[in-house]
Design goal:
Blueprint (H helix, E strand, L loop, with lengths): L1 E8 L5 H10 L4 E11 L2 E10 L7 E12 L7 H12 L4 E5 L9 H14 L8
Parallel strand pairs: 1-4, 2-5
Antiparallel strand pairs: 2-3, 3-4
Helix pairs in contact: 1-2
Length: about 130
C-alpha cells in the first residue's frame, strides 16, 4: 500500500479545504493530527487528516496543511478551532505531536518521510508489507 502526504497548502485559506474534506467524508477519517514545530522563531502548526485506505487497500492519503497557522497552545486561533470542531463532529480527537520544522530538511519529501516514521512508530500508520 502507498501511504502519501498530499499537501493542500500552508494552512491559510487551504485549511478550509481540509476541513471541508473532513466534513464531507467523516467515515473515511482514521486520525486527525496536529504537528507543532518552531519555524524561523515562530511557533507553527501543521494540521492533517489520515484517511482510511481505499477499498482496494492500495493507497492511503494523508492530507496536510503545512506550518501555516500558529500553535493554538501559544496563540489561540479560529482556524485550529474549525479543524478541532470538524474532527470532534467526526468522532475523533486531534492527536498532537511536536516535530522538527520542515525547513531543516532539504526537500519536502524528506520531511514527509520523517513524519511517516513518527506515525508508524506511534502506530498511527500500519507498516508496509
Amino acid at each position: 500500500m502507498i501511504q502519501k502526504f498530499i499537501e493542500l497548502g500552508q494552512g491559510y485559506t487551504d485549511l478550509y479545504e481540509l476541513v471541508e474534506l473532513g466534513r464531507r467524508m467523516p467515515e473515511r477519517i482514521q486520525y486527525a493530527l496536529a504537528f507543532y514545530s518552531e519555524k524561523s522563531g515562530q511557533s507553527a502548526a501543521s494540521l492533517a487528516l489520515i484517511m482510511k485506505p481505499t477499498s482496494e487497500q492500495k493507497f492511503q492519503p494523508i492530507y496536510i496543511c503545512r506550518e501555516g497557522i500558529p500553535n493554538p497552545h501559544e496563540k489561540p486561533n479560529q482556524r485550529f478551532e474549525l479543524f478541532k470542531n470538524m474532527s470532534e463532529d467526526a468522532g475523533h480527537q486531534v492527536i498532537e505531536y511536536t516535530v522538527k520544522p520542515s525547513n531543516v530538511f532539504p526537500e519536502n519529501e524528506l520531511y514527509y518521510n520523517y513524519l511517516i516514521g513518527i506515525l508508524r512508530t506511534n502506530k498511527r500508520l500500519s507498516p508496509l508489507s
